[in-house]
Design goal:
Layout (H helix, E strand, L loop, with lengths): L15 E6 L6 H14 L3 E6 L13 H12 L5 E3 L12 H12 L5 E6 H5 L10 H4 L1 E6 L13 H10 E2 L11 E5 L7 H9 L10 H9 L5
Parallel strand pairs: 1-2, 1-4, 2-3, 4-5, 5-7, 6-7
Helix pairs in contact: 2-8
Length: about 220
């Protein structure tokens, strides 16, 4: 397990996943994506990184401290999952390239890092800040929904198609610390944080869409009402 601030040792360079998002709130779709990717790639650890100031969307509905605590409660009990607070303490916008650069400083240049992305997020990658630098910092694992293959999408930019052609691998055994793209079909769980927030605001049940510990925290702190 990789702990925040712990240096990487030369004999323990197990791959680490990095899963960012607003997590407003974190739900079982997030958790299942991370679990399936961890199993498929053989990740030693998945770092859940709640966004501080997302540059590609409006400010999150909920304060960062609440989103971080919900994340911690959601992943409690899974020894392969850990929460990382690096983005919520950053004064600047939460650019993924900066987060990966900071993680490289903590974990070393040799450890394989896997950035975990949903298919829709991946399709928008060319709009991200310094997006092509991401491939020098990490491998990218893309969770595809059944019937929504990235390579068949009309929304796939040619610049991104070229990167996939050059970098795609068939499994998680990519050599080196960074630079590969893995497209993997995931269990279909169509769960939306937006829909969860709207249901909570209307007093409707969201049980089984997110962990009970997260739902309890939401009720205790009167979030999304």
């Amino acid at each position: 397990m990789v702990k925040r601030g712990a240096p990487a040792s030369a004999d323990a360079l197990h791959p680490v996943g990095v899963f960012g998002g607003t997590f407003d709130p974190i739900h079982v779709g997030h958790l299942r994506l991370a679990e399936e990717m961890a199993e498929a790639i053989g990740l030693d650890c998945v770092l859940f990184v709640p966004a501080g100031q997302p540059p590609h969307r409006g400010a999150p509905r909920t304060e960062a401290r609440h989103r971080l605590e919900m994340t911690r409660r959601a992943i409690a009990g899974n020894p392969r999952f850990a929460a990382d607070d690096c983005e919520i303490h950053r004064a600047e916008p939460s650019y993924t390239v900066d987060t990966l650069t900071a993680l490289r400083g903590r974990l070393g240049q040799a450890r394989p890092l896997w950035l975990l992305l949903g298919g829709d997020a991946f399709l928008g990658l060319p709009g991200w800040h310094e997006w092509q630098r991401l491939f020098a910092l990490a491998h990218i694992a893309v969770a595809e929904r059944p019937g929504a293959a990235v390579l068949e999408s009309d929304a796939l930019p040619e610049s991104l198609r070229a990167e996939i052609t050059a970098r795609q691998v068939a499994d998680g055994s990519a050599a080196g610390p960074a630079g590969s793209v893995l497209l993997r079909r995931m269990t279909p769980l169509t769960i939306s944080a937006t829909a969860i927030r709207e249901a909570l605001a209307r007093g409707r049940s969201v049980r089984y869409l997110l962990p009970d510990a997260v739902l309890d925290y939401i009720k205790e702190n009167r979030l999304y009402t």
